[in-house]
C-alpha cells in the first residue's frame, strides 16, 4: 500500500511532516501550503492494483492586516480637511479561499490648518489741525484685519500730509483761515447752542408720545404664548385624527376631533412598500409643511392629521392596492396630490397560477420557486380522459381570518377543477413556516367551502381515513381525493412555539445621488412569500445584498428589533432616529398579509464613496438573533449578483407521463405486487411505510386498494428534489434481507430501459 500526491509517490522518510502508519493511514502532522493537493491510496499485489478515490486537500490561509501607513498630510492648505492612512490585507494575503481581513482598509480623521490672513488698511483718520508750517496730516492703521498666521502686511503709507492753506501763509506763520472777525465767532456759538436745545426738546416729545400710546393699548390685554411652541424643540404631541373626508389628505378646514387621540411613540415599520414610501419621503424626514399648528393656550398644541398617519390602527382595505406588479414613483413632500390620485390605477396581482393537461399516465404540476406542487398518480384519471388541471396561490388579502391565537402558517393553495374525480389520492405539497414540534404546536389542515367559509379537515396529529398529512420541517405533503382551496393553520400550545422567518436585506440608490436605501424584510419562511418580496424589489430596482437567513421567532409576545451597525465613519451616515427600529410582536406573529419590512436611509459624504460595509442586526427580545453582513458596491456594474432561487423546478412547471416520476413504472408494479400481499411476519406495506418514516395513521393506507402505491406516491411527493433513489433503495434492502418475495423481481421481467435506470440508482 502506498500513497500518491498529485500522482507522485509520497516518501515519508524524506518529509518528517508526513507519517504513514502501519495501518496505512496517512497523517499530516501540521498543515502547510505545500501540503495542498490530491491524495490517492493505491493497493497492489501480484494480481492487480486498486486505487481509492482522490481526496482533495486544500490548505487555506486567512488574510491578515499589514501595519498602518503614516497619516497623510492634510488635503487642504487651510481650513477643515482630512488625513488618511491605509493598510493592506497582505500579512498574509488570503489563499485558497481563506477569509478576507475583517475591518476597514482606510481610516480618515479630520484636520484643521490655520489659513494665513493678509493685512488690510483701516479708513483714513481725520485731518489734524493746521500746523505753524501750514500743513496738516492724517494716519491709518493696518488692522482691518491685522496680518496673522504669516499673512502679508499692508502695502502703502500709514500717514500722509498736505498744505492746509493752498500755499498762502501770513508773516507770523498763522494760517489765513484762522484770522476771522469777532462777530463771526459769536454767531457760530449761538447757532451751536440753539441746535442742541432743539434736539433735546424733540427727544422728550417722542418719549412722551410712545409712553401714552402703550398705555392706551394695554386695555386690550396680551396673550401669553408658551415658548415651547415656537422653539421647535422635541416635544410630545397628541395626534388628533380627522375622520371626515378623504383619509389620505390633510384637511385644514375641518376642526380636529378632540375625542380621539393617539400618540406616535417611536420609529415606524410598515407592511406595505407604498405605505413606507409615503411615510419616509413625506412625513418622517421632512418638515410637516401641510399640518396646521394652532396655539390654543400656553400649554396645549393640537395638530390636525389624517387617520393614515397613525399606523397603530388596522389597515383600511382598499386604500392601497396590494400585489406584486406595482409601479413606484417618487413622492415629493410638497406635492403629494398627484401620487395619491394615481394609486387607484396601479396594477395588482392577487394570485400566482399555473396549469397543465394530464391524462391516464399522471404527472406533476409545479409552481416555480414557491415550494407548491401537485402529484397526479398513474391511473388516477380514467383511460382516454384528460383534464386541464390548474393550481394557484392567493397573494391578496387572505380569506382565512385567524380566530383567537390561531396563526396562518402557509399560503392559501387552490387546485382544480373542483368537479374532477380521481380514483387514487393525489399528493399536494404546501410549504409552511412552523418549527415543527408536537409539544408546542397544534397544526390543522383547513379547506374553504363553496360558501367561502373555512372548515377544518383534520389535525395533523389525528387519525383520519379521509386524508393523510405528512409534516416535514419545511413542507406538508397531503394525500387528498378532492380538489379545492387548502391552507395550514397553527395554534401555539406554549410560548416556545416558533415561527420560522426569512430575513433579507435589499438596497438601491435613491433619487438623491448621495442617498442609498436599505430595506430589511422579515417574512414567513415559505418560498412563495419570499418570491413576492423579490417581485416587489425588482419593480423598485432593489438588489439582494446578502443571502437570506433563517430567524426563529418565538411566540413569547416580545417584539422584534432591527438595527444598522458598524457604519463606516467619515464615509457614510444614517439619518437621525432611524438606526434602530422596533416591530410589535403582533405585527410579526400574525403579519402574513403583506411582506413586513423596515427601511433605512444612508447618505454618503462624497460621491466618490462607492463601497458600503455594515451589519444588519435582527433580533427578538429574549429570543433568537441574526446578523446580515452587508459588503457591496453601490455601482450597478461592480455589484455581485446573488441568486434569488434555485432553478431546479422553474424550467418545466408541468411534467406528464413516466418522466414525472422517479420510480420506473414496471418496478413500481413489482413493489406493489410484493408488499400489498399480507405477510405473517409483518413484512408487507406496513414495514414499507415504517422504513420510509411513515409511522402514524396507518389506518388511512389500509382503506386504499393498493396501500403500497399510495405510500410510493407520498414518497414521490416528498423526494421530488432528490437526485436519486437512495432512501427507497435502502428501505427495500433492509426489508429484502429476510423477505424472500423480493427475489420475484427478475432482470428478465424488467424493461431494458427500466433495468438500466434501476442499476444506476441502486434500486
Automatic annotation (TrEMBL):
<dbReference type="GO" id="GO:0005042">
    <property type="term" value="F:netrin receptor activity"/>
</dbReference>
<dbReference type="InterPro" id="IPR042058">
    <property type="entry name" value="UNC5D_Death"/>
</dbReference>
<dbReference type="InterPro" id="IPR033772">
    <property type="entry name" value="UPA"/>
</dbReference>
<dbReference type="InterPro" id="IPR000906">
    <property type="entry name" value="ZU5_dom"/>
</dbReference>
<dbReference type="InterPro" id="IPR013098">
    <property type="entry name" value="Ig_I-set"/>
</dbReference>
<dbReference type="Pfam" id="PF17217">
    <property type="entry name" value="UPA"/>
</dbReference>
<keyword id="KW-1133">Transmembrane helix</keyword>
<keyword id="KW-0472">Membrane</keyword>
<feature type="domain" description="ZU5">
    <location>
        <begin position="352"/>
        <end position="492"/>
    </location>
</feature>
<protein>
    <recommendedName>
        <fullName>Netrin receptor UNC5</fullName>
    </recommendedName>
</protein>
<dbReference type="InterPro" id="IPR007110">
    <property type="entry name" value="Ig-like_dom"/>
</dbReference>
<keyword id="KW-0393">Immunoglobulin domain</keyword>
<dbReference type="Pfam" id="PF00090">
    <property type="entry name" value="TSP_1"/>
</dbReference>
<keyword id="KW-0053">Apoptosis</keyword>
<comment type="function">
    <text>Receptor for netrin required for axon guidance. Mediates axon repulsion of neuronal growth cones in the developing nervous system upon ligand binding.</text>
</comment>
<comment type="similarity">
    <text>Belongs to the unc-5 family.</text>
</comment>
<dbReference type="InterPro" id="IPR000884">
    <property type="entry name" value="TSP1_rpt"/>
</dbReference>
<feature type="domain" description="Ig-like">
    <location>
        <begin position="1"/>
        <end position="54"/>
    </location>
</feature>
<dbReference type="Pfam" id="PF07679">
    <property type="entry name" value="I-set"/>
</dbReference>
<keyword id="KW-0675">Receptor</keyword>
<keyword id="KW-0217">Developmental protein</keyword>
<dbReference type="InterPro" id="IPR036179">
    <property type="entry name" value="Ig-like_dom_sf"/>
</dbReference>
<dbReference type="InterPro" id="IPR036383">
    <property type="entry name" value="TSP1_rpt_sf"/>
</dbReference>
<keyword id="KW-0677">Repeat</keyword>
<dbReference type="GO" id="GO:0007411">
    <property type="term" value="P:axon guidance"/>
</dbReference>
<keyword id="KW-1015">Disulfide bond</keyword>
<dbReference type="InterPro" id="IPR000488">
    <property type="entry name" value="Death_dom"/>
</dbReference>
<dbReference type="InterPro" id="IPR037936">
    <property type="entry name" value="UNC5A-D"/>
</dbReference>
<dbReference type="GO" id="GO:0006915">
    <property type="term" value="P:apoptotic process"/>
</dbReference>
<dbReference type="InterPro" id="IPR013783">
    <property type="entry name" value="Ig-like_fold"/>
</dbReference>
<keyword id="KW-0812">Transmembrane</keyword>
<dbReference type="Pfam" id="PF00791">
    <property type="entry name" value="ZU5"/>
</dbReference>
<dbReference type="GO" id="GO:0005886">
    <property type="term" value="C:plasma membrane"/>
</dbReference>
<dbReference type="InterPro" id="IPR011029">
    <property type="entry name" value="DEATH-like_dom_sf"/>
</dbReference>
<feature type="transmembrane region" description="Helical">
    <location>
        <begin position="190"/>
        <end position="213"/>
    </location>
</feature>
<dbReference type="Pfam" id="PF00531">
    <property type="entry name" value="Death"/>
</dbReference>
